[in-house]
Amino acid sequence: LEFSRNAANVTAIGSLALVATVLMLLLTIERAFNHVWLVREKRPWWQRLRLFAALIALWPVVIGGVLLATSYAVSTSLGVLDELPWVRRLLLKALGLMVAGLFLGGLYHSLPNTRVAAADAAWAGLVAALGFALMQRGFELYLSNFPSYTAVYGAFATVPIFLLWLYLSWAVVLLGALVAATLPEFRNAGAGPRR
After folding, report:
1. What predicted TM-score, i.e. pTM, was given to this entire model?
2. Would you state the pLDDT for residue 193?
């Protein structure tokens, strides 16, 4: 509710700045993905605009729908099975992993200006989502066990941690893109020459 109240206070200039930032981010991601897939040809601007508008408008709806359906299925089964609390936490973490994998797999499938197999994008999305989960766990362990970063940086302690998180997040996204781009090569190498 607090998020919706704050979102209602955003001005037209703030909304335009947000849209411009999202478009620049999507252009950067598309450029990096095309580089990973060795694509030299750019999409025409009208195709980019249509793709980006679809991503901005549809992905939140798709992710929300998957999240709603899965959480409904999990919550109804939770009452029937009367499981232990650790099972509930595991199911909720799996739900988060699935949504992150779906989102990242969708990016790997739709953003490069080449055909990416849905299965390759899905595997890459799962790898990247697992990377994010491991990275999140590592940061939790670091922040809980090594409080010396606040002694060194004081009030600015969150700035270097945020920058490190941003850097590692982009590395995980690119790792997933590399997985999606190289899976067809492994499949073709495993098939070997036909006689």
Report:
1. 0.75
2. 57
